[in-house]
Amino acid sequence: MFRSGLTCPGCGSSNIVDDDLYSQAQLVCTDCGSVVSEGTLADDPVGGSGVQRLKALCQILRVNAEIEDQSEKYYKEAYQHESFINVTLQKKEILAGCCLLVSCRMRNWPITMGTISCLLDADFNVVGATYKEMMKILNIKAPIVNVTDVMEAHSQEYKMSSYPEELAENSKDLTRRAVALVELAADSWIVTGRKPIPIMMAAVYLGWQSLKPNQHRLRMSLEKFCQLAQVKKCRAAMTRIAEMKEMLCKLGKELPWLRGAVTPDNVIPQVDDILQNRHALLRRAMRAHEDTLQAECQTSSADPPTEQTAPSQITEHVDQTPSASSVEQCEPNPERAEPPADKEANLHTAPEQSDAQESPDPAPNWGKRVLFAPPCVVHPKKRRAAQPELQDVNGDEEISDSEIDSYLRTPREVRDFALTQKMLSDEGKS
Amino acid sequence: MQLSSFTWKLLKILDQVDQVRCGVMDESALERYFDDSIANDSAFILGEELGLQSPAPLLHDSTPSVQNSSFLSTKSERSSELGDELDLSFLPDDLSTQEEPSQDDTAGSQTSVLDMSQDSGIGVNFTSQDSAAAEPRQEASVSGLRTIVSPFCPMTPMTPMTPMTPVTERSGIIPQLQNIVSTVNLGCPLDLKFIALQARNAEYNPKRFAAVIMRIREPRTTALIFSSGKMVCTGAKSEEQSRLAARKYARVVQKLGFPARFLDFKIQNMVASCDVCFPIRLEGLVLTHQQFSSYEPELFPGLIYRMVKPRIVLLIFVSGKVVLTGAKERAEIYEAFENIYPILKGFRKQ
């Protein structure tokens, strides 16, 4: 079979053929006999050819014929491109996996990159890089992966059905519960921007615990659970679990029949009720939150706003979504201090505030003032304090000689430095 | 009444200024605008607050006479005119010469343009008037690099911050420049080993990279100096700082004995960041703006938005923080942000 579009680096001919006679796949120039590309030595028991690998993957994932055909098409197209024509066999396999990934996405049968890298036993970062390159070469756009869509496929990996009743859970119930938890997490900003697999793992774990919140389950750690389920644990799932528990507590607090505080330790048995009544609980929680904000506004009305004289119109900070965060402006009263969120926005975005002005005391970030906010806002990373910047530079100032001299070595220094370098390099050689 | 005579005077001047291609306002709108300002007291104290909020300190030459470049540089005089009677002497005699500011002044006028838009940005928050109307001034200022911006410079305390034509709500947020990358040609081949030996602030590891890495303290920047004489300067926070830093590096090289010059200084890339202070549903954004966005949470937590006009890449994060990069000029950054802000806000309400 002739390979179009390839030229032999040896003689420049375009008569390149596939040579599958031997165990390695090779592309050979029929004119001069030089090997244009070859796979690495066959460590791979499954087979050398990338297309074969692709077919194998399709079978493992049980994709339909459409997806298989589409991915083959993409693979053949990408494979011929110069970026991929001479790469190792492993990279070709990864490319096959990526083509499959994108075809699955386009046909609404999404899988995660993590899954692909697991199946290919490849480094996740390499898979990611290959995926991006392939997308650029093929010039296609794939719809994003919705976590809830992947949830079903993911939760089926957890083999929890063949255990004694205290621990067992069938896949269907588990999936349903996990999907509900993921949806709730998505509404409270836990999902956006994060890798999907730790979230799904956290959802399955918490879902499993909440379906039968007996002592066995509640006491079981994530580690143990993953062992039981024969799934590889990922560390990020621990933080997701904590975040989700926090979110559940915020909602659980509003359950009218509960006495005592709802803490991450005792919230799991309530999850059932929380999920059943989540809309109502959300409304109550938001209202309660607004009330607290109002109360705070009242108390801070004595605060004379030095920077502003009128309420900002930047943002109303009212989130209309039935789900997530809401910060409402303090009730219309033009003289009152604005919600610190606005104030903070003004302060932080006022450019190059010179030190002469009223110093902006870093106002509490807006994340702390809303009911639900992305965790990266609520717990911001500590940034290095900005250096006091050079103000009023026009680029054409005089440059003092002394300053420039401070960057130059004295002759003595030069001698010492050269000597030391020589000594070190001699040492290195001997 | 003093105010109305000012109105008439300024209207006449504006006739001329219109030729300078502000392009955003018309006379009837102007009159409306002034009528509004008369009705509203806050306009009078605005000038005061502007003085307080001025981000850039006074220029060294703060005399009222404006012989040089754009009359925008007279921003400095604002403070001297706070609350005083109207003084129109700031306006240059011959407005038509303002059309094309000279090359050297571009940076200056751009800064002034920028400063003005900064002012208006802050002003929006202060006025109890319709802040929505503040848009066109910033628009005018960012879209036209070389044109003089709105004649309603905040030079007189009478100038209310609300512009004439109400447009879509403006963000009031100014992206902060974080990094500027520039290149310059020193115009002579260089002996990198010699430079690395003679300079304290240089490192040179030919096996790793074929250039000397030099650093200076003020402005805090890093330069890559190649043997061909070309140099890359990174880390500055403004165009002027980048230029000053590049000149300092050139001076160091000069002092080492090379006939270094300063040719073809060019800003290659500008990076800025800002915070819209509300969370953003990236999944939704990628659905509605599919042709521009790329969002792969497995690979990167932010959404990569490739804006076509201006050609800027934005990294948008769930926290509301936005990074803008790929600009050759400051105005492109501002324009890009003003383009994306309504989109992001639209997302918030959904």
Automatic annotation (TrEMBL), chain A:
Lineage: superkingdom: Eukaryota
InterPro entries xrefs: BRF2-like_C (IPR054078), Cyclin-like_sf (IPR036915), TFIIB (IPR000812), TFIIB_cyclin (IPR013150), Znf_TFIIB (IPR013137)
Subcellular location: Nucleus
PROSITE patterns found in the cross-reference section: ZF_TFIIB
GO CC entries: nucleus; transcription preinitiation complex
Molecular functions (GO terms): TBP-class protein binding; zinc ion binding
Residue ranges, compositional bias (Basic and acidic residues): 333-346
One biological process term in Gene Ontology: transcription preinitiation complex assembly
SUPFAM superfamilies: Cyclin-like, Zinc beta-ribbon
Main localization (coarse): nucleus
Biased composition (Acidic residues): 394-403
Chain intervals for the UniProt region annotation (Disordered): 292-369, 382-403
Alphabetized UniProt keyword annotations: Activator, Metal-binding, Nucleus, Repeat, Transcription, Transcription regulation, Zinc, Zinc-finger
All copies of domain TFIIB-type, residue ranges: 4-37
Extent of Polar residues compositional bias: 295-328
Similarity annotation: Belongs to the TFIIB family.
Function statement: General activator of RNA polymerase III transcription. Factor exclusively required for RNA polymerase III transcription of genes with promoter elements upstream of the initiation sites. Contributes to the regulation of gene expression; functions as activator in the absence of oxidative stress. Down-regulates expression of target genes in response to oxidative stress. Overexpression protects cells against apoptosis in response to oxidative stress.
Record-given protein name: Transcription factor IIIB 50 kDa subunit
Organismal lineage: Eukaryota, Metazoa, Chordata, Craniata, Vertebrata
